[in-house]
Amino acid sequence: MCPVEDVKIYEAVKTEESVEKKAVVEMLEKGELDYVTFTSSSTVDHLMEVLGEDKTKLTSATLASIGPITSKTLREYGFDRIVEAKRYDIDGLLQAIERTEREKDKGGSPHAK
After folding, report:
1. Domain boundaries defined on the chain
2. Per 3-state DSSP, what percentage of the chain is helix, strand, and coil (rounded to 5)?
């Protein structure tokens, strides 16, 4: 057997309560955000923690996920209208949003994959 060494490349660290967090929650409450993007399951978990029990603040925005694992996490929180990137990177996420906007302009479903 070969020895294996676990090397931590990065660590997701939650920030303390901040003016920025409060501003985002306020924008969600006012329906000022068209999209909320998620690049990992940990970003979903963190926003759910910030929002607490009131997940309805996210109903006015379209949720955009970088891929199927992140989408699965959103579904576990009860969200099912999710725009999902076909290519699992930031460019793919932006393309999914652009595709969704084009569909809206055509009168199609804004939440199609």
Report:
1. 33-106
2. 45, 10, 45
